[in-house]
Write a structure and sequence with these properties.
Number of strands of chain A: 10
Largest sheet of chain B: 10 strands, mixed
Number of helices of chain A: 7
Structural class of chain B: alpha+beta
Distance between the termini of chain A: 24 Å
Order of helices and strands of chain A: EEEHEEHEHHHEHEHEE
Helix content of chain A: 25-40%
Strand content of chain A: 25-35%
Helix content of chain B: 40-55%
Number of helices of chain B: 14
Strand order of the largest sheet of chain A: 6-7-8-3-9-10
Number of domains of chain A: 1
Structural class of chain A: alpha/beta
Oligomer: heterodimer
Distance between the termini of chain B: 34 Å
Number of domains of chain B: 3
CATH superfamily of chain A: P-loop containing nucleotide triphosphate hydrolases
Order of helices and strands of chain B: HHEHEEHEEHEHEEEHEEHEEHEHEHHHH
Shape of chain B: elongated
Largest interface: A-B, 39 and 32 residues
Chain lengths: 224, 486
């Protein structure tokens, strides 16, 4: 069953076709990597999937709902309810502690629950660092907090934008292990990256070039 | 944890953990609130402060006798009860008469007054030496002092001539006004009839009594009780002739005649109230730049000794009140008192009102400007805060924050700053007002309890209003900025 389906999606900025008639689909529980060089349309696709932008043409079905025509207010609701976001720059609220940062996500979603937030931090191995401010955490730790924040509301889809771009190899592996765990639990993962190693961790890689899907690669070594 | 607690936790964390920026916003609100609270305190207090200041310009109300009535210390005291004690700065009574300085062939206007009150109603009086503190002491106007060469400590002999006001009159005429007469004449059967009478200022009989105990009771003896007979004499000038204006009492012609004779004879020797001469010591020389410099001032007590009357011409009042309140006091006094009418010294009262009006308008204007400046300052700071936190706002939106949540968070921070700034403003504003009041007006002010809630509400309102534009900016931030790896 497909969770996400892009049908003939184009995004046009004046003369520039950032996305040109793209068709992809992602099944429920699937782990997909999106690769491509700069300017290939990765970010545009990420914005559209993340309900932060609308395509100029085409349909985007998320969990059976066409989100290409929704108002930005509805898009905010959909993003909050269905999507967990992870960013390259981590993006934590710098005056809130780790656990408070996780709780911010709960706050906008439903109800802040400190116990649950601490459990989520425990899951990413940062139970002891819960009361630290972002400035007191390493990059890897910050990204793990962001993973905890992304999964706290049990989203249907976790959308990660270059999640390991600012991490060393050790921390990259920790994050990828966390993704593998989430995948096992049935969470759908879309990881945008330019790092082949990160892409290889996924089940399938979609390669974008010049706003078009150049090819799709099934990772035969997945899970081995 | 509830939504609200998380909301407060985020706001307080934002304010407490991002101290420097928030301190600037807090300072701008706090300083604005301080100046506003201070100005409002002064604004409220200005009429009172200035009222006290204005009192140094002299009396703003006069009490005068109504037509045909007299003003004296008793009726004055009664009239003053109308004005509350704390509003009445001073009430100086005045009795004006001409006094002669026979040794120098001069005469001056002398004012009997209460020196303790003068210092309150006419604080601008400049006295070289001191105000008289005892009887037989005088304060001499500069002009007179120069004329007669009076020095501090020198003595002056002053004489009160009851009739000296009456110019161009024969000695006879000037002798009689106000005189008390007593005389006698032989009546029926050799018995003596005594009369005593008082003449008014125009030398006309104002009262008359007769002792006719030596006369036949049924005839002449009835005269002292016969009001119709005695009444004929009232208002008549002496000498009189029986049958010309006054008629004899039927059956008592001889006694009637004796009354007229006795009166006529009495005028021959009558002396009006005796000229009264007292010696005074000069304790002070008065400079005012006005007509007071040609007056001699002495105590009411001495004045009464000399004139033999407790009588006042005017009382000058210095009342700390606005024009409307003054008018109300004056109306009440005029209405309630049978003998006194009150009038405002319009020149003083009106100019006070006009100065007050201008001053309050000025303070109001400054308040408005400060309000505006505070808003601009807070707004600018919040604007800087928003651009500084663009990424964070984008993140919050990406995490699912609605526009409403973003508005609520920034407004919440603004209101919290307003609350802190308001408390700061109320406290520091009072100190500010106190300093201004002490330095400018020379008196302290009392804390208005209403100031605290008012300052808090106003600064929260200012903070909220100042946040409107920055919030609009914040809401417009695109959540996608967090994705672009900026």
């Amino acid at each position: 069953m497909s969770l996400l389906e892009l049908k003939n999606v184009s995004k046009i900025y004046g003369e520039l076709k950032a996305l040109d008639n793209v068709n992809i689909h992602v099944d429920q529980g699937e782990w997909v990597a999106i690769m491509g060089p700069s300017g290939s349309g990765k970010s545009t696709m990420m914005n559209i999937i993340g309900c932060m932008d609308k395509p100029t043409k085409g349909e985007v079905l998320l969990d059976g709902v066409d989100i290409s025509k929704e108002s930005s207010k509805r898009l905010t609701d959909i993003r909050r309810d269905k999507i967990g976001l992870i960013f390259q720059q981590f993006h934590m609220v710098n005056y809130l502690t780790a656990v408070e940062n996780v709780m911010v996500s709960q706050y906008y979603h439903s109800m802040p629950d400190e116990k649950e937030a601490l459990e989520a931090l425990g899951r990413v191995g940062l139970r002891e660092r819960a009361r630290h401010l972002p400035s007191q955490l390493s990059g890897g730790e910050q990204q793990r907090v962001c993973v905890a924040r992304a999964l706290i509301n049990h989203p249907e889809l976790i959308l990660a934008d270059e999640p390991t771009g600012n991490l060393d190899e050790a921390n990259e592996n920790i994050v990828l292990d966390l993704f593998a765990q989430l995948h096992k639990e049935g969470t759908t993962l879309i990881v945008v990256t330019h790092d082949p190693e990160v892409a290889e961790a996924a089940q399938r890689t979609i390669v974008l070039e010049h706003g078009k899907v150049a090819r799709e690669v099934i990772n035969e070594n997945f899970g081995k | 944890m509830t939504q609200r607690r998380m909301f407060l936790r985020m706001i307080t964390a934002s304010l407490l953990r991002r101290r420097s920026r928030m301190l600037i916003a807090l300072l701008s609100i706090g300083i604005g609130a301080t100046i506003l609270a201070g100005l409002v305190t002064i604004y409220v207090d200005v009429p009172r402060q200035m009222g006290a200041q204005f009192r140094s310009y002299g009396a703003n109300m006069l009490l005068l006798p109504k037509d045909g009535e007299t003003l004296n210390s008793e009726s004055l005291t009664e009239a003053l009860k109308t004005i509350p004690e704390d509003a009445l700065v001073g009430a100086a009574p005045y009795r004006y008469v001409r006094l002669d300085m026979t040794t120098r062939q001069q005469s001056f206007t002398a004012a009997g007054t209460d020196f303790a009150q003068i210092t309150k109603t006419s604080p601008y009086f400049s006295v070289e030496g001191a105000y008289p503190s005892e009887t037989r002491q005088v304060l001499v106007g500069k002009e007179i002092a120069d004329t007669i060469g009076a020095k501090l400590g020198s003595t002056m002999e002053l004489t009160y001539q009851p009739a000296s006001h009456a110019n161009d009159k024969t000695p006879e005429e000037s002798r009689l006004p106000g005189a008390s007469l007593s005389g006698s004449a032989e009546g029926f059967g050799g018995g003596v009839v005594y009369v005593s009478a008082v003449l008014d200022e125009e030398a006309k009989i104002s009262s008359l009594s007769v002792d006719a105990s030596t006369q036949t009771p049924e005839y002449g003896g009835r005269i002292p009780e016969d009001e119709a007979f005695l009444g004929q004499f009232i208002g008549k000038s002496l000498p009189l002739t029986l049958g010309d204006g006054v008629d004899a009492l039927t059956g008592a012609t001889v006694t009637s005649n004796a009354v007229v004779d006795a009166l006529n004879q009495a005028t021959e020797t009558a002396v009006s109230v005796q000229p009264k001469t007292l010696n005074f010591t000069v304790t002070g020389i008065l400079t005012t730049g006005g007509e007071e410099e040609s007056y001699v001032f002495l105590s009411l007590r001495d004045m009464e000794t000399m004139t033999g009357a407790d009588q006042l011409d005017v009382a000058e009042l210095s009342v700390s009140a606005g024009v409307d309140q003054l008018e109300a006091y004056a109306d009440t006094i005029t209405e309630n008192s049978g003998s006194i009418q009150a009038r405002l010294v319009k020149r003083v009262a009106r100019s006070e009102a006009s100065v007050l009006e201008k001053l309050t308008a000025l303070v109001f204007l400054v308040t408005l400007v400060v309000l505006l400046l505070t808003m601009i300052c807070v707004s600018t700071t919040m604007m800087a805060v928003v651009s500084e936190r663009r990424r964070e706002i984008g993140l919050r939106k990406a995490l699912g924050a609605s526009d409403g949540s973003i508005r609520a968070e920034f407004l919440g921070e603004g209101l919290f700053l307003g609350l802190l700034g308001g408390v700061m403003g109320a406290v520091l504003g009072f100190v500010f007002a106190q300093v201004v009041s002490v330095n400018v007006f020379g008196s302290s002010i009392t804390f208005q309890p209403l100031l605290l809630p008012a300052a808090i509400i106003v600064s929260m309102a200012i903070a909220a209003a100042s946040c409107l534009l920055p919030i609009k900016r914040a809401v417009a931030i695109d959540p996608a900025i967090v994705l672009k790896g900026e």
